[in-house]
Structure formats: structure tokens, C-alpha cells
Amino acid sequence: MKNFYMDVESDLIEFMNTGLDLKLHLASFLKTTINDIDNRLPHGSEDLAALHPKASELSDPTSFYETDVGTAHLLDLASWHLGSAEYIAETLKLLKMFSKGNVLDFGGGIGTHALFAANLKEVDHVWFVDLNPQNRSFVADRAKALSLDDRISFHRDLESIGNIIFDSVICLDVLEHLADPSGQLLAFREHMNPSATALLNWYFFKGFNGEYPFHFDDANLVERFFKTLQSNFLEVFHPLLITSRIYKPLT
Fold first, then answer.
1. Residues 235 and 246: beta-carbon distance below 8 Å
2. Which pTM value belongs to this model?
3. How far apart are CA 174 and CA 204, in angstroms?
4. How many contiguous H segments (helices) and E segments (strands) does the chain have?
5. How far apart are CA 4 and CA 116, in angstroms?
6. Residue 165 pLDDT greater than 90, yes or no
């Protein structure tokens, strides 16, 4: 991504090979070596899980994700993105197909999708939102390293952005972590123009053996989510065989 409008296929190849220089950026941000990062990445998910309280003890998810996880979330997400590069690359293809104008990346994590979107000619600006200040700082550093810092702004929450109306919304691997995902869908709709699209996925399941302790899976919460989705958004077909979906607001 050295040249600003590099061919998207080249970007995808770079992501598949390096995660957009992810290990290099992590080493720089954490002030360590790539060898140390290589040693820590395989344990990223385990280290984050060790910090997570039991579901019955998680009284304030916002506080946990904003203050308690620290940099552990960076290593967990990096491990997932690098280990699932083919799947992530498919979501980047969807960004190329649908992203334009003002883009919101909600719960943007380590910045893969925000950085890729910011490199698209069809995109004017990306608003990156994440509760974790470490994530925001890390992605800001990545954006500067990739010469994209003038095309991305960084925010704690949607409310702090103001009255921006978005042409594209990205919310991947986030909704299942929210205590009120239905309310988040409605908040998105309020900030979307009538022709906007939202790239969404979700996984309201803690796993067969509790391997996803961070996910909400209450049956009433899930039913309310789908009722809200179906009454406020229309699914837009895309040809890729992945779980991420595209929606536009119902008018």
C-alpha cells in the first residue's frame, strides 16, 4: 500500500502475505521484535480469554473491553486475522464492491478493514470507532505508516462522531459482543443515507465447549436482534460464499 491508489488485487495479495505489514506494525507499537510477536501470537486468544470474567461476573462489558483488555486484544485479533487470511480477504472483496463516500468502521479492532477501505478511490473518509484506546492508537500508527492518516479519523463511540451520515457501514465480529445489538442496528440506521449499505456479520454462540466466552447468546436477545434486522433492513445479494452479509435500510 505504498502507492495510494494501488490495484486492489495487489492489496489482497499483500494482505494474504503479510496482513498489511501487521507483524511489523505490532512490533513497532509494542516496542518489541517481530520474533517476540511470532512467539506471542499463538497464545493471543488464550491470553485474552484468561482476562475475561465469567459471564455471570461480566456486569459491565463496556468497561471490560475499554480498560481491562489493554493490548491483549491486539494480539488476539492479529492471531485471528493472520490465521484466517483467506476469509478476511473475502470480506475485503466485499469492501471493494460496496464501500464508497463516508465509511464507518464500527468496532474496527486492528484496522484491517478501515485501512483497506481508506485506500479505495471510491471512499472519501473512514471513521474508525473502537472502545479500546490501545486499538485506536495502534490503528492510528498503522495509518501513518501506510500514509493513510489523513483519510481516517479515530473515535471512542458513534455518539462522539456527531451528525455524519454514512454511505457505508462496516461492523464485523462485533455485534455478538454487545449487550444490545438491536439498539446498535437502529443507531446505524439513523446514521445511514437511504442508499447506504452495511457490511455485517454476527455469531451469537458461546461455542460447543465454551470456546467463545466473549459472545452473548441469550435467546431473547437473539430473537429481538433478528426482528429488528428484518424490520429495518433489506439484504442485498452478493456472490461470495462467506457469512458476512450486505444490508440497506428499508424505506
1. yes
2. 0.89
3. 10
4. 11, 7
5. 11
6. yes
pLDDT in tens, 24-80: 999 999 999 999 999 999 886 665 666 555 544 555 666 666 676 678 889 988 998
Q: Any idea which residue has 485479533 for its cell?
A: 77
Distance CA 156, CA 139 (A): 13
What are the extents of the domains in the chain? 8-249
Radius of gyration of the chain (CA): 17
pLDDT at residue number 149: 95
CB 201 within 8 A of CB 172: yes
- Phi then psi for residue 63, to 5 deg, are -65, -40
Query: Domain 8-249 is of which CATH architecture?
Result: 3-Layer(aba) Sandwich (3.40)
Edge-to-edge strands, sheet with 192-200 = 152-155, 123-129, 101-106, 166-171, 192-200, 245-249, 233-236
Measured N-to-C along each axis, helices 22-29 and 72-83 cross at an angle, to the nearest 10 degrees, of 170
Length of the chain equals 251
- Across 185-222, b (16+ Cβ under 10 Å) vs e yields beebbebbeeebbbbbebebebeeeeebebbbeeeebb
Q: Does residue 123 register a pLDDT over 80?
A: yes
Which amino acid does the sequence have at 130?
Answer: D
**Ramachandran sector of residue 92 (left: φ over 0; alpha: ψ -120 to 50; beta: rest):** alpha
